[in-house]
Amino acid sequence: MSAPPSRPSRGRGREALFVRIPSSEAERLDRASFELKLSKQDLITALLARYVDPASPTSLAALRQLGDATAADGGQRVELTPDALTLGHHDFRPAPVPAAAADVLTLADVAVLLQVDEGAVEALAESGELPGRQVAGAWRFARRAVLDWLATGGAGPTV
Question: What percent of the chain has pLDDT over 70?
């Protein structure tokens, strides 16, 4: 058995890497880490140092083949550009902003926020008691102003 890879220095000059890998591969990484008495961080660092060289056309060709194979299986992707190597993929979707958390609220949004019917909100707005204004014929309210108005018992200034 060959000697384990040397340990890279800890501390400065390190970047965080967060990845999600298949359970079977995570178990293999755990086992290798245990057998070599290396942290997973040091093991991954050694593997990258040994097998990933973005400056080498041969290394890039091998990684490109790996990326094509895993992408075809619906797995991780390897994206290569002339200047950088990006491993992995993301699956982020922006969460919809609930109406109650929006900065600008409609008449219906304020009614939901205050738990009253829209007619009551409209009456308060038209009387000038509830801070709001009409934009293109429709009522709009600043969420912060409505919450401040509610907190002060309706004594706040109108917008």
Answer: 67
